[in-house]
């Protein structure tokens, strides 16, 4: 067999081993705007648009990369309503510069166009950087991949020096007693904020104020200096921004201050914990499995209480060993970043040693040595093959060297 | 006669009264009503009237760190009616141990559990003819292939690690699953059943019937044991499974009904999320 035909054979074999769900389609994901100019320290948003192209997309996920030296991702939220529920596995990693944001719909799948999510970044330092949609992103219809990856794009972000303060103008700062930390999610949905101008050589005539979900907007509503505060009630669950700007009598103005307000009043989705054994014998480990999602701030942690004891944070699966005989009621809570909780429970009963439980035939059989150590065997096999190959290679070279003499 | 020593009286009183003081609930009325629910909980009596409804079940504890501490509790009781099939019980409440009228040798009907935690087959029926007679006929031929009951024969997958196989057999024949008759029981002379453990992936079983005249050909039964959430059977719980799952939302399709409550809803979703990213 010639080298070319051998290569073709290998390629054809490899192409047959692909994922069974990797069929391509016509649905697309793209970032917008394609280019963005922002000032250092400013917050800005990038939108992920989804185009169904008649592919009936019910589940979508965007994997995004960015340079964490230049950008800090502060939020990734499903927006637009095309995919209203958050998929598991969504999150931001500001160390690696990665975002995974997935959504799905229980209603009509997406055939036309819609927005998947909105990403919010803060520009950390001047320079040019990029936010990119990665090719492992998904647009899925009824379990089948339908994404056309050729439409995946990136956003070029040019970060410039921060906007200069006009001569004589002061610096406006906002404080919100209802939401004192700009990075924390709160269940409080009524907002009370005040602001003041520090420094400056002129008197403020009025303020421009607005509250919305855009991180960087010029405030529209004008209020007098006597009203250096804002009260707003029953805001919906979202990441809001309060924008305030000061206007001077001479027509100049302060820079606009933007204050993020995180509100999440809705608890996580229902949780249904399960145990690996509903009936166990003393000495047998019992695994407690649990998980759910939260469509607002996201799941912060899970907590477990046994038989009415105190709740302690745990991760799934929570393996309980050395259980004494008795009945155990496991109460599992999912708590989101705002502190809303959703709870579920499951029981298991542990019997004394020697109890004959009705177990299915074959349940006690030991896993074969091959199955329990298959990766060790595979690894050892690869090493042996490499050693043999290396030996043959060295022997062949020696033989060639000797024959040259 | 020597007079009794009064110096011993305090000791006698102490010995008599100490056991009583251990269990006393001072200054309160304490009542135990054993007829309520049986959930184990952890209560402290702090003044006032305190009523414990239900049996005081065994252990109260709390979790600390990656382990847990048992705070109190003892005296586990196996109670018929607690929802657990305990040793010596065939069933308990709605827990029927995967048994049905068919698996008990009847043609149809509804199997229930009696108040003594034994099967109640009074609502099971066997159709039409047959019945009686019989006795032990002399065996002249090897048994025919055993049947897998039509109720389960088309089951393609399951999200549980155990499955109850059952069906019909030639009268009196011994049934072996993969050459082994361990665990096989015979609800009637013409039926059989066995609960088998499954491994992830496709499980194939050869079922044969044997009598003194020989052994039948094998009836092959295949069933796929899926990881909960792995609707696509690719061995991983991922977005592809989620996509399939959402299409089943609100239906009773067994494919997405992981907790087998008859509805695909957030509880099934929670079970899928608990295994998100898991591979087998």
From TrEMBL, chain A:
Residues 1-23 form the signal peptide. The chain crosses the membrane at residues 375-396. The keyword Transmembrane helix applies. Residues 34-149 form the Cohesin domain. Gene3D superfamilies: 2.60.40.680. GO terms for biological process: polysaccharide catabolic process. InterPro entries: CBM2/CBM3_carb-bd_dom_sf, Cohesin_dom. Keywords: Membrane, Signal, Transmembrane, Transmembrane helix. GO terms for molecular function: carbohydrate binding. This is Cohesin domain-containing protein. It comes from Candidatus Uhrbacteria bacterium GW2011_GWE2_46_68. The lineage of its organism: Bacteria, Candidatus Uhriibacteriota.
From TrEMBL, chain B:
One of its GO terms (biological process) is polysaccharide catabolic process. The keyword Phosphoprotein does not apply. PROSITE patterns: EF_HAND_1. Keywords: Signal. It comes from the Bacteria. Residues 127-147 are annotated as: Disordered. Residues 127-136 have a biased composition (Gly residues). The keyword Flavoprotein does not apply. This is Dockerin domain-containing protein.
């Amino acid at each position: 067999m010639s080298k070319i035909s051998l290569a073709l054979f290998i390629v054809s074999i490899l192409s047959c081993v692909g994922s069974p769900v990797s069929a391509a389609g016509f649905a697309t994901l793209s970032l917008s705007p394609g280019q963005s100019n922002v000032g250092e320290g400013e917050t800005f948003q990038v939108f992920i648009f989804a185009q169904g192209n008649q592919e009936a997309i019910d589940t979508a996920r965007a994997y995004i990369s960015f340079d964490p030296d230049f950008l800090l991702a502060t939020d990734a939220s499903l927006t637009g309503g095309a995919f209203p529920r958050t998929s598991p596995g969504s999150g931001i990693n500001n160390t690696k510069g990665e975002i995974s944001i997935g959504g799905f719909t229980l209603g009509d799948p997406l055939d036309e166009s819609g927005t998947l999510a909105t990403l919010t970044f803060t520009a950390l330092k001047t320079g040019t950087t990029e936010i990119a949609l990665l090719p492992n992103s998904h647009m899925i219809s009824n379990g089948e991949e339908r994404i056309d990856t050729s439409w995946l794009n990136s956003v070029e972000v040019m970060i410039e020096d921060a906007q200069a303060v006009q001569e004589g103008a002061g610096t406006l700062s906002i404080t919100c007693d209802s939401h004192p930390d700009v990075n924390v999610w709160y269940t409080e949905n009524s907002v009370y904020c005040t602001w003041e101008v520090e420094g400056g050589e002129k008197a403020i005539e009025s303020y421009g104020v607005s509250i919305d979900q855009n991180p960087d907007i010029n405030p529209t509503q004008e209020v007098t200096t006597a009203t250096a505060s804002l009260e707003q009630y029953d805001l919906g669950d979202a990441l809001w921004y309060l924008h305030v700007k000061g206007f001077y009598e001479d027509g100049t103005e302060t820079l606009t201050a933007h204050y993020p307000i995180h509100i999440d009043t809705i608890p996580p989705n229902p949780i249904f914990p399960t145990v690996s054994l509903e009936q166990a014998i003393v000495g047998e480990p019992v695994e407690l499995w649990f998980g759910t999602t939260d469509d607002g701030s996201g799941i912060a942690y899970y907590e477990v209480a046994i038989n009415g004891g105190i709740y302690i944070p745990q991760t799934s699966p929570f393996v309980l060993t050395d259980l004494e005989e008795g009945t155990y009621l496991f109460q599992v809570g999912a708590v989101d970043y705002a502190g809303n909780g959703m709870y579920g429970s499951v029981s298991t009963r542990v019997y004394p040693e020697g109890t004959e439980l009705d177990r299915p035939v074959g349940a006690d059989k030991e896993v074969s040595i091959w199955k329990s150590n298959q990766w060790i065997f595979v690894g050892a096999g690869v090493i042996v093959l490499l050693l043999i190959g290396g030996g043959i290679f060295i022997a062949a070279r020696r033989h060639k060297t000797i024959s040259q003499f | 006669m020597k007079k009794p020593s009064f110096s011993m009286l305090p000791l006698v009183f102490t010995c008599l009264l100490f056991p009583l003081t251990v269990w006393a609930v001072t200054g309160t009325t304490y009542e135990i009503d054993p007829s309520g629910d049986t959930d184990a909980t952890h209560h402290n009596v702090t003044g006032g009237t305190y009523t414990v409804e239900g049996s005081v079940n065994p252990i109260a504890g709390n979790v600390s760190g990656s382990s847990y501490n048992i705070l109190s509790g003892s005296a586990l009781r196996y109670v018929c009616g607690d929802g657990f099939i305990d040793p010596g019980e065939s069933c308990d409440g709605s827990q029927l141990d995967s048994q049905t009228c068919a698996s008990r040798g009847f043609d149809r009907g509804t199997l229930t559990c009696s108040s003594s935690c034994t099967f109640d087959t009074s609502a099971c029926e066997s159709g039409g003819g047959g019945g009686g007679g019989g006795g032990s006929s002399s065996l002249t031929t090897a048994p025919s292939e055993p049947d897998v009951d039509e109720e389960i024969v088309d089951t393609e997958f399951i999200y549980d690690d155990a499955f109850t196989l059952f069906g019909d057999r030639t009268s009196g024949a011994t049934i072996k699953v993969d050459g082994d008759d361990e665990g096989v029981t015979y609800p009637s002379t013409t039926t059989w059943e066995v609960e088998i453990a499954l491994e992830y992936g496709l499980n194939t079983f050869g079922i044969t019937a044997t009598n003194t005249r020989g052994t039948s050909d094998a009836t092959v039964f295949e069933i796929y044991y899926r990881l909960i959430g792995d609707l696509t059977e690719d061995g991983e719980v991922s977005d592809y499974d989620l996509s399939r799952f959402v299409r089943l939302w609100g239906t009773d399709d067994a494919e997405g009904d992981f907790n087998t409550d008859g509805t695909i809803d957030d509880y099934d979703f929670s079970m899928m999320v608990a295994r998100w990213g898991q591979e087998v």
